[in-house]
Every structure is written in C-alpha cells, then in structure tokens.
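Can't paste images in this forum, so I'm doing it all in text. The chain is below; anyone willing to post the predicted structure tokens underneath?
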Amino acid sequence: MKKYQAFDIVALFLCIFFIPGCSTTYYAVWEQLGKEKRHLLADNVENARDEQEKASEQFKDALTQIKELYGFEGGDLEDFYIRLRDNYEDCEERAQAVEKRIAKVEQIATDLFSEWENELNQMKNETFKAKSRKSLLETKNRYARLNAAMTKTKQSMEPVLVNLRDYVLFLKHNLNAQAIGALQAEVRDIELEVETLIADMNKSIHEADEFLRDFQ
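Text version of the structure:
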C-alpha cells in the first residue's frame, strides 16, 4: 500500500474543509491519492444520491405530520407546534446538504469535461481521438439528464420549505383551535408540493443510479 506524507493529508483536508476555492490543489492532492476527476465525480454523484434519499425520507415524515391535521380534534397544540418546528428544521438541514452535494457534482463535472476536451486536443492518433470524443459526448448526455433531474429537485424544495416555515410561524403565533382550522384549509396545497418533491427526488435518484451504472 502506498504511503503518503503527513503534509499530503493535511493539504487535502485544508483544501476540502477550509479553502473551497483551491480546486487545483484539491485535484492535485486527490491525484496523489490515486483518484482522478472521473473517480471524484462518481463518488460525489453517489453522495448526492444518498443525501437525496435521506432528504426524501425527512420530507415524507413532514408530510405524515401535516396529514395529522386532518384528524386533529384537540390535544397539546404546543407539542404539535414543537414537532412541526423540529421537522421543518430537519428538512431545511437536509435540503441544504442536498444543495451542497449537487453543487459539488456540478463543479467537478464542469472541470472533468474541460480537462477531457483539453486532452482531446493533445491527441495525435485520430482513431483514439474519435473514440474518446464519442465517449465524452455520451458521458455529457448522460450527465445532462442527471443534472436536469437534480436541478428540478432543488427547485421543488424551495416552495415546500417556504410553506413549512409559514406553517411553523403561524402556529407559533396562534396556538389555538382556530389556527389548526386555518392550517387544515391550506394543507392540501403543501401535500401536493411535498408529493411532487418526493417524485422529483426519486427521479433524480434513479438518474444518479443510471449515470453511475454507465459511467463505471
């Protein structure tokens, strides 16, 4: 097993956690550890997929709690508010994690395709060059489908989070039966938004699996 100097490991963690803009150093250190951009792209697509799976479950929990409003006939409003607030905060945290993962995928994909194009221009063997260009175009097309699905997921999260926040703040200001009645009248809209979000996430997760299968 190849051994690396402590400096290499320190440089890697500094670049990952403290200096987001140092992409050149980031890639250089990873290359020393045996990972090219294509490996990093696959790893980050997998991470983005996993993060979306976690977020999907969190939003499903929020939907389940929202549906409890249908049968709410009295009880501890303070407890209901606290659970809804905590659920919203968890959804917001998951959404932020998804967005960060997707942004990382987009950055690495851009850098990989740019590098690939530059290396194609260096190739003299026209047969190899043509095959490599064909592979690049196929990879770009697969990635475009994945990126479109991830973008749709990001767009679907925002209205859900806005509505959840509004629900939480409304309950905070109005812990009474009338507040529950008002929320019940609005609950179908957010139900539809959450269901749409979950469907978009499932599509994005499927596209990630397809991309990883073909990319490997």
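The longest helix spans residues 126-173. Helices lie at 6-17, 23-32, 37-67, 77-122, 126-173, 177-215.
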